[in-house]
Write a structure and sequence with these properties.
about 375 residues; FAD/NAD(P)-binding domain; nine-stranded mixed beta sheet; six-stranded mixed beta sheet; binds flavin-adenine dinucleotide
């Protein structure tokens, strides 16, 4: 089967590897150089669903030494002043042996490993352009050109989308009073605030807040920004130094009504983009790749390409819908009026603390998808 992939970000690149492994010939179109692809300052939470996908295609063992595992995930309601801790023992039995709830990965390291892996695969041709000369040459076209996809605009594929009235600020910070293997999701009235371990005392802060407050905080001096962080972090955790300049980006919600248009199939952020709370973005993109590769590897579809887009779109719908509802609910929970919702919030935290079954269900949906 001849496949074109538009976009060689983390979704398109992994799709190229997975589809090439099923025996397809892949032309991978990308407008940026490898250097530009690698030099993005992003940090991802990697779940067990991604670990399994990377293991199946043989990249995991090379990649894992570059990832930071975490064994504790503390979810804090800062208005209630209550914490629920998710532990490795809340995962499925088969996942507990990895001794990690998940891993934190810096973009540069995983993009570099994946691009190096691609160079060793003969049936992937990297084509440095943004224009496919003749689409008739391909049986399927995988569109992974990101959330501002021009291909999707050209094909007029409708989607449900809105902009949160929030921006996301990311910064690398040295912290005191935290174990190097714990992560935090702090449900703060301004918006969710995540602390992700990067090794030793270094942590990535990912916080979302209103555009006005976020713009104000982005203009603070480093020492005032540290003071601001100390007002959000739980007591006992002290921010020491900001290691880089904080970055910010707007937060969008995008959900395509269909994940295909004719022989064009939408993967990754072309099909969906959610709030960064919960670190689901990349994992969901890679589950798209895994689903498509599974369908294409079935002998029946080797000569019946026509059904692939529809089956793919149907197969991905419920996972993407569930994660979109979960992430959006977390944002609304975090920002809900405490005086009005104090009782439901107390109840949710009480249930989470008391019931290991509920904790297991939640962590399993977040780590494995639906
Ligand atoms: C500013 C920013 C910061 C982010 N930070 C984080 C973070 O800290 N943590 C996190 O978990 N997630 C983060 N994300 C989301 C995360 O980057 C994505 O989930 C992940 O990269 C997968 O995206 P993708 O491959 O589907 O799309 P992208 O990474 O956007 O890749 C799309 C690729 O397609 C290429 N392309 C576009 N148009 C064409 C064309 N016409 N022809 C050829 N190539 C084309 C682009 O050059 C790009 O390389 C961030 C996103 C953005 C935009």
């Amino acid at each position: 089967m001849n496949i074109a992939i538009i976009g060689s970000g983390l979704t398109g690149s992994l799709a190229a590897i997975s589809l090439a492994k099923t025996g397809c010939t892949v032309d991978l179109y990308e407008r940026l150089s490898n250097e530009e692809l690698i030099n993005r300052d992003r940090t991802y939470a990697i779940t067990h669903s991604s670990r399994k996908i990377l293991e199946n295609i043989g990249i995991w063992s090379d990649l894992v030494s570059n990832l930071i595992p975490f064994q504790y995930l503390n979810v804090i309601d800062s208005e209630l002043n209550k914490t629920v801790q998710f532990l490795v023992k809340d995962l499925n039995n088969s996942q507990q042996k990895y001794l990690a709830i998940g891993w934190i990965a810096e973009h540069r390291k995983i993009m570099l490993s994946i691009l190096e892996f691609i160079t060793d695969i003969n049936n992937i041709n990297k084509i440095p352009t943004s224009v496919i000369p003749n689409t008739n040459n391909y049986d399927l076209i995988v569109v992974a050109d990101g959330s501002n996809s021009l291909t999707k605009k050209k094909l007029k594929t409708p989607s449900f989308n809105f902009k949160y009235d929030q921006i996301c600020i990311t910064a690398k910070v040295l912290l005191r009073g935290v174990k190097s293997n714990e992560a935090f999701e702090i449900l703060n009235s301004e918006g969710p605030f995540a602390v992700l371990p990067l090794g030793g005392d270094l942590f990535q802060i990912v916080c979302s807040q209103s555009v006005i407050k976020g713009t104000y905080n982005m203009n603070l001096s480093k020492s005032l920004f540290l003071d601001y962080l100390s007002t959000i972090l739980p007591s006992g955790i002290e921010p020491d130094t900001i290691v880089d300049e904080p970055n910010s980006f707007p937060i969008k919600f995008v959900f395509n009504y269909s994940f295909f248009s004719g022989k064009y199939i939408y993967l990754g952020e072309t099909a969906h983009k959610f709030h960064p709370v919960g670190g689901q973005g990349l994992n969901l993109c890679w589950r798209d790749v895994d689903c498509l590769a599974n369908i294409i590897s079935k002998p029946f579809f080797k000569h019946n390409f026509t059904f692939i887009p529809l089956l793919y779109s149907f197969s991905r719908f419920f996972d993407v819908l569930t994660i979109s509802v979960l992430t959006d609910s977390l944002v609304r929970y975090s920002r809900s009026d405490f005086n009005v919702f104090v009782l439901p919030r107390r109840f949710i935290f009480y249930i989470l603390k008391k019931s290991s079954v509920i904790r297991r269900v939640i962590i399993n949906v977040l780590t494995n998808g639906v």
